[in-house]
Specification:
Layout lengths: L12 H4 L4 H12 L3 H6 L7 H15 L4 H5 L1 E4 L2 E4 L12 H10 L5 E5 L5 H9 L4 E6 L2 H13 L4 E5 L11 E6 L21 H4 L7 H9 L4 E10 L5 H10 L3 E7 L5 E7 L5
Parallel strand pairs: 3-4, 3-6, 4-5, 6-7
Antiparallel strand pairs: 1-2, 7-9, 8-9
Helix pairs in contact: 2-4, 6-7
């Protein structure tokens, strides 16, 4: 087990801790209850035995592979602070593309549905940016919804939360825009046993099938809950864009297209409801 002795100075932690500089700083600030500036202004401060023990425990968790976001219980997304725990996926920068696309397509006082909201990152980011909009977010997990409600309240975002297995609990409700970041990793994919994914809720990562079953459900059900000319936007895997576009085209949608994230990967696909649906 990795340890650090009491008596170490705050200013020496970056060289003493065994992680990458950013992770060293995050864990040191969290363990000591100070800011990044505090690491500088308190550089001569000496760690007490309880502080050293707390910091060593956090470092050991990270060395075992646990995500930093779960260790500190926070993650920044779209400029907002989100609480996270193992009941929800860790919000990722790639998903900010979905928020941007949603904001571009959400009409004034429009209604948006976020499916499989998890931590509430997408719904809260949109509601915070567009307080005129009516944002509804659903998830099948009660534990996830508890986290999402906490994040909405903390960020002063008006979001209505519904516990639902996809469209099951929203009856005949209609929305101008539906967005989703559903489970899209295929069952047995090697990535599920690597990195941060080992610690995240498996049901939010994989559909336990071919990676497309949740996307098929959303594509099939969305027309019954979209207003005229409404948009459906879905995040998906790095190699699924063509398949998702095909699902949308087969479903009678129009203006079918995909958008690339900052890494140049087709990360989001979507379309408008077809006139005949």
């Amino acid at each position: 087990m990795w340890t650090i002795g009491a008596g170490a100075r705050v200013g020496a932690l970056q060289s003493l801790l065994p992680l990458e500089p950013l992770e060293n700083r995050i864990l040191a600030c969290h363990a000591l209850g100070i800011t990044r500036i505090g690491l500088i202004t308190q550089s001569e401060r000496v760690l007490s035995a309880p502080e050293a023990g707390a910091l060593a425990a956090l470092v050991e968790r990270r060395l075992a592979g646990e995500p930093i976001a779960y260790i500190v219980g926070r993650r920044e997304f779209y400029g907002l602070d989100f609480a996270v725990n193992p009941a929800v996926l860790i919000p990722r920068p790639d998903t900010e593309l979905l928020v941007e696309l949603a904001l571009e397509r959400l009409p004034v006082r429009g209604r948006m549905l976020d499916m499989g909201t998890g931590s509430g990152a997408i719904a809260v980011a949109v509601a915070h940016t567009r307080p005129d909009a009516g944002v509804t977010a659903l998830d099948v997990s009660a534990a996830a919804l508890e986290v999402a409600r906490t994040n909405a309240q903390a960020n002063r975002a008006a979001v209505r939360f519904v516990q639902s297995d996809w469209f099951g609990a929203i009856a005949a409700e209609s929305f101008d825009l539906i967005v989703a970041n559903p489970p899209y990793i295929a069952d047995g994919d090697v990535h599920l046993a690597q990195g941060d994914l080992r610690f995240e809720p498996v049901g939010a990562l994989t559909d336990h099938a071919d990676g497309l079953s949740a996307l098929r459900t959303i594509v099939a059900g969305a027309p019954h809950h979209l207003a005229a000319a409404g948009w459906l936007l879905m995040e998906h895997g790095y190699d699924q864009a063509a398949q998702v576009r095909a699902l949308l085209a087969e479903g009678g949608y129009r203006e079918v297209q995909s958008w690339r994230d900052l890494a140049g990967i087709e990360r989001v696909s979507g379309a408008r409801i077809g006139d005949a649906i």
